[in-house]
Structures are given as C-alpha cells and as structure tokens.
Amino acid sequence: MRDVVNPITSSLEEYPMEELFKIKQKLINKNQKIYDFGVGDPSLPLWEPALEALKQSASESQGYPSIGGTKELKEACADYLLRRFCLKEDPSRLLVATKGSKEAIFHIALSLIGRNGKQTLAYPAPGYPVYKSSVLFAQGVPYPVPLTEENHYLMEPWNFPEKVVKDLAAIWVNYPHNPTGTTVNISYWEKLVEWCHTEDVVLLSDESYVDLYHILLDQEEVSASRIPLSPLVVSSDRVISFFSLSKRSGFTGLRTGFMAGDRRILEPHLKARANFGLSTPVCIQKAAAKAWLDDKHVALRREIFSERLDFAFEKLSQMKLLVEKPEVPFYLWLKIPESVSRNDIDFCLNLARDGVITTPGRWLGSKEEHFFRLSLTLSLEDMGEAFNILRKHVI
To answer: Domains of the chain by range and CATH?
Structure first.
C-alpha cells in the first residue's frame, strides 16, 4: 500500500508533550492527585483588566481579523518595546502580530529555508521541540547544537564546522533559555549579531521568558545588569525576535504574541502568513493590547515566580538535584544523581506513576540522559507535597 501521507509527516515523532497528556489522563482516571510540572502553563488567573477587555470585545461584532494585527495591538506592542528595551520606532524594523509564539516559530522556517541557496537551520538542544519540526516541514536540514554544562549552555556558532556555516540559513537562540534558565549579557548579543552579519545568517531569537527574571523579594529594585535583553537592542539587520504573552501575562490558552525585526524579511513573510490562516480574533487582540501596555501585573507575577523559585531551590538543593539558583524563575534543569538513575525517561515515568509529572531532558532534545525539567507552575503548598514524593525517588 502506498503511503497515505508524505514521508515527513509519516516519520515525524510524536510531539513529546502529548505523551505527558496521556500519562495525566491515566492518573485522572484513577482519581489520583496530579502535580504537573511538565508543561509550562502557570497556575495563575488571567489579569482581570485583560479578561474584562476580552469579555467586552467578544460580545461585539467580530469579522475577519487582519493578518498583521490591529493598529491598537501593534501600537501597544511598539510601546512595550520602547518601555522594555528603549527601542524607538525604526523604519527598518517591522512588527507583526502572531497567534502566540509557537506558530510563529514554526512558520518562519518556511520563508527562510532556501534563502540564498542555504538549507540548514541550527537550534539549541535541549530546547523547544518546534525548532526541529519546523525545519523538517520546510524540507531543510536540521542542525541541533548541544548545549551543556561545559559550554555554559551558550550557543556559539563561531565554533561550528565551516561546512555548516556555509549552508546556514538561520540560527535559533533562546535566552533566557528553556529549560536551563541560562541568561546572556549585552556583550554576547553584540558578538552573536556581528557574527550573523559577517556570515549572512538570520538570527531568530525566542524571547518567551524575557520578562520573567528572578527578583530578590526584600529589595525594591533589580540591578539593570540582571535584566535580560533582546538582540534587537544591538540591531534589526537579519534579526527577528519573538515575543509572547503566555508566560508574561498568563495568556497560554489564548495564543497571542508578536514578532519584530528586519523589515526585509518580515514584509514578504507577512504575505506568506496570509495563506496560513493565522489571524488572531479581534477580542483576543483587544485583551493583548491591554496586557502589553501594563507592567505592574507582570511585576506581581515575577514576585510569585521568584517566591516559588526560592522555595524550590531550598528543597531541591537539599536533595542534591540543583546546585545553583537560575536567573529565571520558571524552569529548573535538574540533574539526576548517578546513584539513582542515568535514564531520564525511566526516572520521569516512575515519578509520573506517583502523580508527579516532569519532562525528561531527552524529550527536549538533550543528548545527555540524566537531566529532567521541572516548571514552577504550582503553588507552594502543592510543590511541597510533590517534593515529598520526589524525595522518595532520589534519597
């Protein structure tokens, strides 16, 4: 029998997070309490003013939304870039509303693979699984770059083989990094942007976590040197940054964000996006505009996540799972003690049977088999209960 779908679809591995949903459903069927650290879906309510804007607009006549985003939303996003990164309006930079960052990350490869005859797209491993699948569907050449403790989880393309660099259409970076929480400074961005200009490589920057930096709860201000930056502060030339409200404002189920960067890339890509059916409903854009214009609710979320990080670090360091506190209070990259297990998948599946859902590092593309990811999506009370279960598996 002939294949009923093309080779790319038929050979695609199941999306890792779908396996977590299956495990959870089995636990639900057994009426077992679940402590879900697996998916980055914060257990916090949507900011009330955004919710009200959504409700009010949803009752109005909608109509087909514009693919590029409403004027109101784009102005709000531009205002955010000005407040957050001191980025004034620039005719060489274009801003495009997206239906969350996931779809935007996936679809950009369709416009970049094949540019100037280049077929390769590099991405961090461990990292967001969509980086790889996007290259496969664009019929490009995926190039996973192992990020390890040894290289401080830094993407360093200047160390790539010459053959790879010659065929490199674009490169993904993600700082603050999912899953390790690694951050970078302005010097790194300057070096990376300069390298991309020299080698004619498009820099794609996933900035979903850029507003979730750790704060000291007993201090009023955070040192400017510790606040994550965007490569857009260096240049928009061959740079595109991807932003999302999912973690910043709790819009995970509403799917809204934007990308900004090189107009020469985004203008033709916007024409392509008109064919994909990616317009965000106007009512969601209304709520998103409200959220991008406000920083106070984000500061409150940082306090909550920072409190969770402090609590988790105290407990997990006692179990020798975490040595250093990360700068970003959202994901924790935990190392399984050698005396316990060297197989991350088996370890996480055993944890899941007791109701604690985590993510094996290899499901995120890690080449190492002794790491797992934990997201700070639960209350302190639930985390405490879950850590008591976890302790039984490691001590």
So the answer is: 15-40+297-394 (3.90.1150.10), 48-293 (3.40.640.10)
